[in-house]
Amino acid sequence: MDDPDTNDIAGQLSRVRQEILLAERQYGRLPGSVNLLAVSKGHPVTSIREAIVGGQLQFGESYLQEARDKIQGLEVNGLLWHFIGPIQSNKTRDIARLFDWVHGVDRLKVAIRLSEQRPERLPPLNLCLQVNIDHEPSKRGIAPEELTELACEVEQLPCLRLRGLMAIPRQRARLEEQREGFAALRKAIEGLRLLGHELDTLSMGMSDDMRAAIAEGATIVRIGTAIFGPRPRK
Ligand SMILES: *Cc1c(COP(=O)(O)O)cnc(C)c1O
């Protein structure tokens, strides 16, 4: 199913880029304002190499051990790695050392550890706060009501750079319904900007709802399946 020989990753990548351009045009976004993050979790280094040949430099991973092996196995200059998975406190040291971005922060304790453990030789770690936009009990993310306080606290941390917000809204079938969840995240970032936070990133949209996310202002879409094909079962 995920045979890299039969999977045309460079071709899929250019199809996704084309869809992003079309959506930018359709929804009045500036061309190039939506960055494509290729989510390579569950896929081998050979697939990442194919994407690099296709011009992709930013990759998202969700599991630390898997990511560490890939990052260390790929000695290509100019790659940027985004950690998009759940963050356990005992994993922050390696995340702070290996990654350029972290998308899923929803607790001050984790942010403090990431800041303290960020190596001095590296620039500040880019951070998005994850928001539980639909108030789903089973989902990670901070409640929208608690966001302002967490954002203020995180901005005090010296080795982090708060860039914006991330969410994984409930799955919905229709574009108009998908847009509602993303619109809620957009309103949340607009609220923080009114309070003086300089934030430039809305990390939202996956393979099945990318267009809706772009319509509502996504600046990073996190796309796995549409580029790499289905993830092999572990
Ligand atoms: C796996 C994952 C994605 C990619 O999902 P696809 O449906 O394969 O595009 C995006 N964001 C997060 C947080 C993920 O865990």
Q: Tell me how many strands there are.
A: 8
Q: Could you tell me how far the N terminus lies from the C terminus, measured between alpha carbons in angstroms? A: 13 Å
Query: Outline, from the CA principal axes?
Result: globular
Helices and strands: which structural class?
Answer: alpha/beta
Bound molecules: pyridoxal-5'-phosphate
Rg calc: 17 Å
Largest sheet features: 8 strands, parallel
Helix content: 25-40%
Which spans have pLDDT < 50 for at least 5 consecutive residues? Answer: 1-5
Separate helix tally: 9
Query: What spatial order of strands do you see in the largest sheet?
Result: 7-6-5-4-3-2-1-8
* SSE succession: HEHEHEHEHEHEHEHEH
| Beta-strand percent range | 15-25%
Mean pLDDT: 95
Describe the secondary structure blueprint for this structure.
Elements: H1 9-26, E1 35-39, H2 45-53, E2 58-61, H3 64-73, E3 80-83, H4 92-98, E4 101-105, H5 108-117, E5 125-130, H6 147-155, E6 160-166, H7 175-194, E7 201-203, H8 210-215, E8 220-223, H9 225-228
Parallel strand pairs: 1-2, 1-8, 2-3, 3-4, 4-5, 5-6, 6-7
Helix pairs in contact: 4-5
The structure holds pyridoxal-5'-phosphate (PLP).
Pyridoxal-5'-phosphate binds next to strand 8 and helix 9.
Give an account of the 3D structure.
The protein is α/β, with parallel strands linked by helices. The protein contains nine helices and eight strands. The protein has helices spanning 9-26, 45-53, 64-73, 92-98, 108-117, 147-155, 175-194, 210-215, 225-228; strands spanning 35-39, 58-61, 80-83, 101-105, 125-130, 160-166, 201-203, 220-223. An eight-stranded parallel beta sheet has the order 7-6-5-4-3-2-1-8. The longest helix has 20 residues, at 175-194. 41% of the residues are buried.
